[in-house]
């Protein structure tokens, strides 16, 4: 932290200002890779934070990570806070001259940084090996200067300092009693050369403020800034008389009062360059950054440009450096790219599907620039899989195309009167092609699509051995439809979000439908094969999260699905009788990949197959402790099983029993979910009750589930 405090003081920040910055900083977010989903572009939101582990492959071999902490948020913070001096590249020209010390880890040498980018110097000088990634610099890698010289008074003396006031928080060598764990052993080993030099560098101080006897916090206790500052005052008070005497001694000399320069409201650049970006990604990056030469931009607009680039999910970090070279201003956008080939995975469990393994391959620019290829596989007692190709198009990359094949082979539970009946082997295949335009690259898009679905259902129980309640051997349904959609998503997180809105509207109409049904012989019903009446479907999903207090979020939501069809006057087979596979499936606590599924706690997964539904959700998310959530929730509305007109005729006076699945019915569920945002992914325990059932149903899930595309 010495280089950060020194750099800010040299830039003109007062001691009180630096203390206020430290006390108000959310260090866990600064040193984490926590990025708001608002900074993720529309086409990437579906894959955002959906996996536990991520492994890069380069030339067919796994790439090892060089750091634990992602520095994206840290570099953004440094860029913002040094904005008033962004045009100063000679550190002697800062309000107070400055030097940062780093170590060339390649050659084992100290490197004194006296010019260039101030944020780069700050970041390089704090690159604790294995914690932060080293910084690339003139063909070498820079790490924390403390590796060789943690108290560089000798550098100040060689620079020409007449008087040195040193503030030592290093702690020196740990005792044998303190070297009782892996962390202390590794830290002492890494700081050994510096600690052996410490007694020499301390002796160079004219006034030494020794904090070591008062230290109770370690290097990683950034969130204890206020307490650490108070401890620092103890050592300072011990040297107060010496400091006062020195101040009186210096009174005859001219005093220079450092002042933070006034930050410009806007800035323009004569040239814009890019560093660390491959040709495959350069066009997409330029389109997302969208910064043009000789155009004025504010700091917030430059930050938003970096966010747009980072939201492509192509980079580990995005930063920018600004220079004045021979009277001309230049901005360099610097990036650390992810590999073209990524293997991701997670373990998961839930009450319906039990334990599973979710694997994903993500290939970037394998088939054309600005493209993504996904291969996903979910292995549990059932099987789900996806192949998806996506490509950004146009000069500004505002258009994007996605083609996806999705399949699942599951045993689908069926329910009669709210009780589990026979299970069926359900095979579902979807081939979806959509073409979208980003209205707002982060929040909203509209699109058109063509979708083909093929469903087959067979009783799990062999009909030749025993009867089944459906009286069929096989049901097969195929449909081809075209659709239009609009999506708006400003939620800040994919799980346990605190604010934002999600809205999706979709309107589709079928072009082709075909059914094949084979009945059991004892049913004395002729098999059916042929076309089915065409239908149109319209659905809405809405969720609004409103932060009421720091730990309390109000949630309101609604979802609807309507099916418009007419079987009268048609020579085709009846949709009402044979369009079961095209229904909406309600129930469960997890949004499954199949897009006609709608989660409603209190119902079993896919318990209710309906042609019409209107549901309202009211909930509240309370966080009594960090990463722990309690969410009471209520869902109420109506469901229908016939055409839209019949549903609306009884919309305000539903008189059916939803579990009988015959006439328009009132549906009400209520419950509470206890959640923990664990290292393995979301963990939820839900207890819910549904009307007409009269029993509490329990659901449990842990980990990242196979996600839905949109």
Care to describe what's here?
The protein is an alpha+beta fold and 710 residues long. It has 14 helices and 35 strands. It has a 16-stranded antiparallel beta barrel. It has a four-stranded antiparallel beta sheet with strand order 5-4-8-7. Strands 11-13-12 form a three-stranded mixed beta sheet. Strand 12 and strand 13 form a beta hairpin. Helix 4 crosses helix 5. The longest helix has 14 residues. The mean pLDDT is 89.
Please specify the SSE layout and strand pairing.
Elements lengths: L1 H10 L3 H10 L2 H4 L22 E6 L2 E3 L3 E3 L2 H10 L18 E5 L4 E5 L4 H8 L4 E3 L2 E3 L2 E5 L8 H7 L5 E4 L13 H9 L1 H12 L3 E4 L14 H14 L1 H10 L21 E5 L3 H11 L9 H12 L4 E11 L2 E10 L3 E10 L3 E11 L6 E9 L3 E11 L5 E14 L2 E2 L2 E2 L3 E17 L3 E16 L12 E18 L10 E20 L8 E4 L3 E15 L2 E14 L9 H4 L5 E3 L10 E2 L9 E3 L1 E14 L2 E13 L3 H6 L15 E14 L2 E10 L5 E8 L7
Parallel strand pairs: 3-6, 9-10, 11-13, 28-29
Antiparallel strand pairs: 1-2, 1-14, 4-5, 4-8, 7-8, 12-13, 14-15, 14-35, 15-16, 16-17, 17-18, 18-21, 19-20, 21-22, 22-23, 23-24, 24-25, 24-26, 26-27, 27-31, 28-30, 31-32, 32-33, 33-34, 34-35
Helix pairs in contact: 4-5, 11-12
């Amino acid at each position: 932290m010495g280089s950060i405090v020194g750099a800010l003081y040299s830039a003109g920040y007062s001691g009180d200002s630096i203390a206020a910055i430290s006390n108000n900083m959310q260090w866990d977010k600064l040193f984490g890779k926590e990025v708001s989903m608002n900074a993720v572009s529309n086409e990437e939101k579906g894959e955002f934070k959906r996996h536990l582990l991520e492994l890069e492959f380069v030339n067919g071999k796994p790439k090892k990570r060089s750091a634990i902490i992602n520095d994206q948020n840290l570099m953004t913070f440094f860029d913002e806070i040094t904005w008033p001096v962004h045009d100063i590249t000679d550190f002697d020209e800062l309000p107070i001259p400055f030097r940062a010390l780093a170590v060339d880890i390649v050659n084992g040498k100290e490197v004194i940084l006296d010019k260039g980018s101030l944020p780069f110097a700050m970041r390089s000088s704090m690159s604790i090996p294995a914690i932060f990634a080293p910084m690339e610099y003139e063909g070498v890698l820079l790490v924390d200067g403390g590796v060789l010289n943690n108290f560089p008074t000798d550098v100040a003396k060689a620079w020409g300092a007449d008087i040195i006031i040193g503030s030592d928080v290093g702690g020196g060598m740990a005792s044998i009693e303190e070297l009782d764990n892996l962390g202390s052993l590794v830290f002492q080993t890494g700081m050994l050369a510096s600690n052996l030099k410490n007694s020499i560098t301390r002796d160079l101080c004219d006034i030494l403020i020794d904090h070591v006897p008062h230290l109770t916090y370690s290097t990683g206790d950034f969130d204890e800034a206020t307490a650490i500052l108070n401890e620092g005052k103890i050592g300072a008070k011990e040297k107060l008389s010496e400091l006062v005497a020195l101040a009186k001694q210096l009174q005859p000399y001219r005093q220079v009062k450092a002042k933070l320069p006034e930050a410009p409201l806007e800035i323009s650049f004569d040239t814009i360059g890019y560093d660390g970006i491959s040709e495959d990604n350069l066009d997409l990056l330029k389109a997302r950054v969208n910064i043009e030469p000789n155009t004025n931009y504010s700091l917030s607009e430059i930050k938003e440009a970096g966010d747009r680039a980072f939201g492509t999910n192509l980079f580990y970090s995005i930063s920018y450096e600004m220079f004045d070279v021979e009277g001309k201003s230049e901005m360099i956008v610097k990036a650390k790219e992810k590999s073209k080939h990524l293997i991701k995975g997670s373990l998961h469990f839930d009450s319906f599907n039990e334990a599973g393994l979710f694997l994903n391959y993500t290939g970037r620019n394998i088939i054309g620039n600005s493209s993504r290829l996904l291969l996903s596989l979910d292995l549990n007692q059932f099987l789900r899989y996806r192949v998806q190709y996506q490509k950004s198009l146009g000069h500004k990359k505002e258009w994007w195309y996605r083609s996806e094949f999705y399949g699942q082979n599951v045993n689908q539970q069926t329910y009669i009167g709210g009780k589990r009946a026979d299970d069926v082997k359900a095979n579902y295949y979807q081939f979806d092609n959509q073409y979208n335009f980003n209205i707002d690259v982060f929040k909203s898009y509209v699109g058109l699509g063509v979708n083909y679905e093929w469903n087959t259902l067979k009783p799990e129980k062999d009909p030749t051995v025993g009867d089944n309640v459906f009286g069929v051997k096989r049901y097969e349904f195929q449909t081809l439809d075209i659709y239009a959609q609009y999506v708006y998503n400003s939620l800040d997180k994919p799980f346990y979000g605190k604010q934002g809105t999600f809205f999706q509207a979709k309107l589709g109409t079928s072009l082709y439908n075909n059914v094949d049904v084979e009945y059991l012989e004892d049913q004395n019903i002729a098999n059916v094969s042929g076309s089915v009446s065409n239908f149109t479907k319209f659905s809405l999903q809405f969720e609004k999260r409103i932060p009421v207090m720091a730990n309390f979020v109000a949630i309101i939501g609604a979802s609807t699905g309507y099916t418009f069809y007419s079987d009268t006057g048609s020579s085709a087979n009846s949709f009402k009788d044979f369009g079961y596979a095209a229904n909406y499936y309600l129930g469960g606590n997890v949004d499954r990949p199949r897009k006609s599924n709608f989660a409603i706690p209190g119902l079993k997964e896919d318990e209710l197959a309906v042609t019409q539904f209107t549901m309202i959700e009211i909930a509240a998310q309370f966080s009594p402790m960090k990463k722990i959530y309690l969410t009471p929730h209520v869902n109420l509305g109506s469901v229908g099983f016939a055409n839209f007109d019949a549903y609306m005729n009884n919309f305000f006076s539903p008189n059916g029993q939803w579990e009988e699945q015959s006439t328009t019915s009132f549906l009400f569920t209520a419950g509470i979910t206890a959640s923990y945002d664990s290292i393995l992914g979301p963990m939820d325990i839900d207890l819910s009750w549904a009307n007409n059932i009269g029993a509490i149903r329990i659901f449990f899930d842990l980990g990242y589930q196979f996600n839905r595309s949109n």
